[in-house]
Amino acid sequence: MATVMEFTSPAEEFPLGTVFENLPDVTVELERLIPDGTLIIPYFWVRGAKATDIEAAFETHAGVVSVDLIDEVGSEYLMRAEWDREYFGVLNALGEANIVVLSGVGTKNGWRFEVRGENRQVISDFRTLCHEHDIPIEITAVHALLPLGGDSYELTDTQREALVLAYERGYFDSPRAVSLDTIADELGITQQSLSSRLRRGHRRLIGGTLISR
Fold first, then answer.
1. How far apart are CA 204 and CA 158, in angstroms?
2. Is the N-terminal amide bond of 175 cis, ω within 30° of 0?
3. Does domain 146-209 have CATH number 1.10.10?
4. Residue 38 buriedness (CB in 10 A; 0-12 / 13-18 / 19+)
5. Where does the pLDDT of residue 111 fall: very low under 50, low under 70, confident under 90, or very high at 90 and above?
């Protein structure tokens, strides 16, 4: 059965994390990860700093070949990084174990990842790879995906919890009966984390109900 794992890792253990040394107030959120042979190219959003400062802060990052600004929306900047092929980090371990990254958010306090594997064995393989390469991670949750209504699409329990609570509180009403901040406070997470869970939950629901397979 497909399994979801949540884990944390120190900020400095992820190449993009060294940005917090120069810009401690920024938040980095991985947007998507594209396999490119043995190399994983991440697209990510950065919030909490000016674009020029962000680009300069990434110039000296270990394990990163280049970081380019792709787009900006308000005060958020979409960027793309290419890794040094000789560098082995948490993304490489996830790629070798054939694990999908559902979300990854970093701040000066560390990284929080939510990932999905086909079963518990691949999750175990990932943990072994991290141990062999001295990549420190702390697993905070492991759980099976929850099927909805017997269909082929699936949500993680955290995505389902966020969607159901938002629906019950009237977030999807017009006009909205509650703000994103209020729901995030009730769940005990940041607004950014809640927004990510809702967005990824919507994507899975749309993919499972509106898209032909």
1. 13
2. yes
3. yes
4. exposed
5. very high
